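@channel sequence for tomorrow's demo:
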Amino acid sequence: MHHSYESIKTLVQLRNIGVRISIDDFGTGHPNLSYLRNFPLDTLKVDQSFVLDMAF
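structure tokens (generated this afternoon):
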């Protein structure tokens, strides 16, 4: 996201009027997980390929 500040601002405004925010299939491009902390998300669906080799 090249304009993350504007995106976050828009997402916050949407959330304030009751819209729930979700990201589907996170992990297909493997962006940085800490980057997502900035976004007001309600749901994050992680792609299986992102967690397939993780040890639990």
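heads up for whoever presents: Residues 15-51 form one domain.
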